[in-house]
Amino acid sequence: MSHASTLAREVPLEAAWETSSHSEVCCLIYATQNGWKLPILFEEMGVPYEWALVDFDEQEQKSARFLAVNPNGRIPALIDRGRGVTVAESGAILEYVAERFRSPLLPTLEEHLGLHLQVKQWLYWQVSALGPSMGQAMYFQRIAKVRGHDDPFAIGRFIAEAERCLQVLNDQLAASGGPFVLGERCTLVDVASFAYGASAYWANVDVSEMAHLRAWLDRLHARPSFATGLGVPFARPAFFGPPHATDDEIEAEIARNAGQFAVETKAPR
User: Fold this and answer.
1) In degrees rounded to 5, what are phi and psi of residue 133?
2) Between the CA of residue 7 and those of 10, 86, 123, 181, what are the distances in Å?
3) CATH topology of domain 8-100
4) Least crowded by CB within 10 Å, which of 54, 154, 192, 228?
5) What kind and span of H or E run contains 106?
6) 183 class by beta-carbon count within 10 Å (0-12 exposed, 13-18 middle, 19+ buried)
7) Are 89 and 36 in contact (CB under 8 A)?
8) What count of Cα atoms within 13 Å lies in the side-chain half-sphere of residue 199?
């Protein structure tokens, strides 16, 4: 269950660059697994932040003003008004913010070289392996298939790869002894990986035998900072399945999710 944030403040997208007394930073986000990383990060750090909705229904992620921040046309992005810079790509943003606010979520090289490198290793794994495999599994089933583009080979391929990645995460949790991915300390790896791991239901990946993963997900769902972050910019509990969502919420999300994205293809040469 999400909780109302006392740290977050919404601003219109056109005001995201304007100076504010609430925070020097503004997150450009939508309610997706990548988009939730930033609210979870700021809630976990306890640092005030502003956020602006990049409306997918209006294709604002493809607008000129957003492409000026991220030419790749993907959320999230960050505006740091205090330093006059912008940052795109979720892994780069998480690193930048943790260093900017001296957060223990990313220990410094001087504090703990081994853990610093582990955090970066697993953060890059999330953005290069877990995220893409889960994203494709969800895309081919929840968007393409619902819209009549049923590709069993692609679906099977990405379910298998998503399951492999979640098993890697489960094994790491077992090896570290938990309660977090790298052991006793919550890090950027937990922040980055949580929403994707929690979306196993939406990707149709069976995690019933992954006891360490399921315990970690339950723990973070109950952690106030993570629960609050999942509500910014808004909650989509259907991604996480029962008991987080009702059957009606899941059916409504299936239709909504499929309608938000174009199925882009190009004929092979």
Assistant:
1) -65, -45
2) 10, 21, 25, 26
3) Glutaredoxin (3.40.30)
4) 154
5) none
6) middle
7) no
8) 30
pLDDT (0 to 100) of residue 264? 72
Tell the burial category of 152 from Cβ atoms under 10 Å away from its Cβ (0-12, 13-18, 19+).
exposed
- Chain centroid to Cα 11, Å, comes to 21
- Given a contact cutoff of 8 angstroms between Cβ atoms, the answer to whether 12 and 46 are in contact is no
Cis bond before residue 243 (omega within 30° of 0): yes
* Contact status, residue 37 vs residue 195, Cβ threshold 8 Å: yes
Angular region, 102: left φ>0, alpha ψ -120 to 50, beta rest: left
Closest to 233 measured CA to CA, from 38, 53, 2, 61: 53
CATH class of 113-260: mainly alpha
Task: Provide the 8-state DSSP code for 250.
Answer: H
All structural domains of the chain with their residue ranges: 8-100, 113-260
Can you give the pLDDT at residue 2?
Answer: 55
Instruction: Tell me the residue ranges of DSSP E strands in the chain.
Output: 8-10, 25-29, 49-53, 77-80, 85-88
Q: Which residues of 196-218 are buried (b: 16+ CB within 10 A; e: fewer)?
A: bbbbbbbbbbebeebebbbebbe
Tokens of 125: 């794994």
Q: What is the pLDDT of residue 205?
A: 98
Cα angle 118-124-128, degrees, rounded to a multiple of 5 = 145
Q: Residue 174: its pLDDT value, please?
A: 98
Residue 269: per-residue pLDDT: 78
Series of mean pLDDT values for 10-residue runs along the chain (269 residues)? 84 96 98 98 98 93 94 97 97 98 97 97 98 97 91 97 98 97 98 98 98 98 98 97 95 84 73
Predicted model pTM: 0.95
